[in-house]
Amino acid sequence: MAYKKNIIFMRWFLFISFFLITISISETIIPPVSKSDNISRSDYFMFSEDSSFLPIIMINTLNQEIIQDSKIHAVMSIKYQGDGKFTHLSDSSTIYYGDIGINIRGASSAGYPQTPFNIETRTSSGLSNNVSLFGMPAENDWVLISNYNDRSLLRNTLAARLFSSMGNYASRSKLCMVYLDSVYQGIYVFCEKLKRDKDRIDIAHLYTFENTGDDLTGGYILQQNLWDGKDGFISNYSPIDHPGYEVHYLYEYPKIDSITLAQKRYISNYIDTLEKVLYSPAFKDPQNGYRKYLDTKSFIDYFIVNEVARNIDGFKKSIFFSKDKNSNGGKLKAGPVWDFDWAWKNIDDCFLLANTSGTGWAHHINDCQHDNNSNGYYIRLLQDTSFANELRCTYEAYRKTVLDTAFIFRYIDSVEQQVQFDQEAHFQKWQTLGVSGPAPEINTIAVTYRGELDFLKSWITKRLAWLDKNIPGKCNGGGSSGGSGTKIFNFYPNPSHSGMIHFEGTLSGVGPFQLAIFDVSGRVVKKMALSSGRSTFDITLTARGVYYFSVVDSGEVVQYGRILVL
């Protein structure tokens, strides 16, 4: 009862506070205008921190200090008039008004002047409250990512956009203007926290009573990150190119306070079995090698996004892995991608990447001094010609779609359009233009926001040009790979409106041959044996979406392609 009385008091306190804030600024607010009006930033600069093209998030801590170890109770109001419209602090309507829990998040980023936060939407009784915000699926765990180390305001969201466009889950997000206790805090990325959920990392719920049989096999989420020695386990294997390096895995789901001993043993034994096979002489075996335990598509997509961004953190920390129940596929998947504020840059953190030419491999991070060891999987995986060819063919297919610079630059331009009336106030607040941020950059820093985006586009162009020449593997274009006497299969129509795809080609390799078609989750939806010689056949896919196929000759992928059913 006392708790409810306190909540009622705090709600009235907050209402009065927000009302007084609105009154104090209302005299400086110009009536809202529509997107069609001919306006410039200078027209609205007088109230740049009081109105926004972005949603406005106001957080009232109720005179408490936000800490890192646990969430305090606070209240949050979100105002948003919609895309292309100005939202004002004086607007009476809200898309969310209610209780939250909030704490500081991050490792080094926790010390940034623009602080990142975890947010939990709550009921008036203090319980988790699933709500839909900005069109995202209803949930209760959210993140406010600081842009203090990202002058482009889009490095994290661009990486997520690419990974999602490849058919994977990535955190959905919205750029927002944030006030904390009436003080302007600049532009943040409001996004989904990575967690198990049917609309996020879609794996089975693992209950404490599920300790045997198929129940025990999933779902799990692991993370590679800085370790305190308490909430994870140490691998029994070191990276193949760095004997003696200690590799840690953290329990992300179930959490350390709820995971059972049987569940700890199962997931650590699964990783142990995978690594034992991966580092064995027979690791390439298509039936009993690493492919039995590891989902190659997700690992390839994760590799591509992090190498395109030359993400120095992407192979040593903030790395997520998930495993569903064996009855749902059960292989270890890489992703979602996360933490790109040190990416898409030239930084003096590893001698392999400290250049302005767009060269170097981020997955070789163990060759440099660093704060956390990579598991080094990709060093071993790329010793498999089949994996390398699949990687190359996937990369070449993406270069015609999601990795086409036109696709990427359209997204960058769209963000510039979103923040055109808000970025000046953000950079006046934080003064990060023209200076290197926490990431030690080695190039001249742009002094304008437009200059930062121009630099980013130039950086991406250089990086992709280098990757075009250096991505491992062989592929003969068109999403197909030839090798060992194998002729490329032609497949059409693609995209297909009916779901029917016609294949024709000639197989003249050693055999046996097999065609497999996968959905975006990596699940095999069709599989068929093929014979040497001329083949003509049709495949029908009933559900709309993106699919991938591979043709295997004696365990080696000799062709890989992408199919779209509209």
Mean pLDDT value: 89
Number of helices: 10
Strands of the biggest beta sheet: in what spatial order?
Answer: 2-3-5-6-7-9-8
Assembly category: single chain
Gyration radius from CA atoms, angstroms: 25 Å
Strands, count: 21
Q: What is the straight-line distance between the termini?
A: 55 Å
The poorly predicted ranges are 1-10, 12-48, 477-486
- Structural class by helix and strand composition: alpha+beta
Give the helix proportion (percent range). Answer: 10-25%
- How large is the share of residues in beta strands? 15-25%
The global form is globular
**Biggest sheet character:** 7 strands, mixed, barrel
Sum up the structure in keywords.
alpha+beta; 566 residues; five-stranded antiparallel beta sheet; 24% helix; globular; Immunoglobulin-like; single chain
Give your account of this protein's structure.
Among the domains are: 2-29 and 46-146, no CATH class; 213-374, no CATH class; 490-565, Immunoglobulin-like, CATH 2.60.40.1930. The strands form 5 sheets. Strands 2-3-5-6-7-9-8 form a 7-stranded mixed barrel. It is α+β, with helices and mostly antiparallel strands. It is globular. It has helices at 2-26, 41-44, 155-165, 261-278, 296-308, 377-381, 385-399, 405-418, 423-430, 449-470, and strands spanning 51-52, 56-60, 72-79, 87-88, 96-104, 117-122, 141-145, 173-180, 183-192, 220-224, 232-234, 248-253, 319-323, 332-334, 490-492, 500-507, 513-519, 524-530, 533-540, 545-553, 556-565. The chain has 10 helices and 21 strands.
